[in-house]
């Protein structure tokens, strides 16, 4: 018997209430929309539990009926899938009602939250309570989930940009309804759950990121004390080859922690795309279309309007005023020696550009309130292809060549940013923009995406995330690791009910 039949739905309704079990066409359609090339994916129902206890009961019912469920926290995962399940007919478990900020510890600088807590909610909590701590935010919607971004191993732009690295302690509901805690949270009444990551014995937290072995219902993560001084850096570079010199400049600055944050070097097409997302869509999209085609004249005008170069560096300095001043001189000297034609924008110039204003806010942990992709959704297609690279000229050059060659083959345009994490690795976030209303173009976009994965994996560059439609395609390249993931799935979820297909893990498709 399937859960969508009357008996199972009635049992769930008894747990969450009629108002929070939704099967009407309009609601289901809202959870089907995405920006992928494969089209919308319609669920069978949407359930909105209010607590871990309600979630446990819902999961137990799904397990009894062997019916797939797809938990989501914010549903803001644009470019990777948004609020869709991987397969049609799933039950969406929307965790937005589980939105308590359980603790913010000022002395030890950490937070403990539920899945529905958004970046906007936590930021306002810190601001309204005059708590001198900063959080990390992504470049996307303020309504994204803090916890969800951790479990997807997302990247941000403060010194805490590697979200999972700075997480500490999880609570997880397993497929049989059992609740476990990771780290030192395994000890009842633990006093160190959010301050010591490892606990005793095997460390399990990573098993519940980018996976479908359990549903994370609480997560701790570290915050940073508000620094005495903060200075954003904005550098525009007009040479097409400037990215390679910038990488060489930035590697030692990152390794020596002169620039401690998630700094990025962004190509102009991606910078314009981000600016369109950050409140300028109505001004930019009519000039560039859904595929970001533009004439040289239009590009010159847009660069001038938004104070952009062919490549654009955003980073920040934090610390004592004298430290920030010293580091500013070091950074300026390094850039100007390697790139004499580069230009550092003044604070006034940054404030005059929507692109640089957003960068400045994100690097001090303020959500991007102006974020708006309503002109894109359901119309423009957008896939994020995200290989990781060493911070070296050879690696960056090879990755950019692969992208440019493959995109040109399928009739698309390169649009990317390089986010430097530790100074050793960088996330090469490449946008694939296409017209979603054109079936032939959707097909080309899907082929292009898969060929990109083929070419990057052939030369040893593994993407760190994929969209819903390509999880299995990428996972099949990973040999024994794929087998082990399915062994773990069999152990944690033998009825294959939790997010089947997530990251290519699906017992029904194991062979």
Overall pLDDT confidence: 94
- Name of the CATH homologous superfamily of the largest domain: FAD-linked oxidases, C-terminal domain
- Rounded to the nearest angstrom, the distance between the terminal CA atoms is 25 Å
Helix content: 25-40%
Pfam families: FAD-oxidase_C (PF02913), FAD_binding_4 (PF01565)
Domain FAD-binding PCMH-type: 39-226
Cofactor: FAD
GO biological process, one term: lactate catabolic process
What's a concise summary of this model?
This protein is of the alpha+beta class and 511 residues long.
Structural summary, described in words:
The chain contains 15 helices and 19 strands. It is an alpha+beta fold. It folds into four domains: 89 residues, Uridine Diphospho-n-acetylenolpyruvylglucosamine Reductase, domain 2, CATH 3.30.43; 125 residues, Uridine Diphospho-n-acetylenolpyruvylglucosamine Reductase, domain 3 (2-Layer Sandwich); 239 residues, FAD-linked oxidases, C-terminal domain (Vanillyl-alcohol Oxidase, Chain A, domain 3, 3-Layer(aba) Sandwich); 32 residues, Vanillyl-alcohol Oxidase, Chain A, domain 4, CATH 1.10.45. α1 packs antiparallel against α3.
Key traits:
511 residues; alpha+beta; Uridine Diphospho-n-acetylenolpyruvylglucosamine Reductase, domain 2; Uridine Diphospho-n-acetylenolpyruvylglucosamine Reductase, domain 3; Vanillyl-alcohol Oxidase, Chain A, domain 3; 4 domains; eight-stranded antiparallel β-sheet; five-stranded antiparallel β-sheet; 15 helices; 18% strand; globular; flavoprotein; Vanillyl_alc_oxidase_C-sub2; FAD linked oxidase
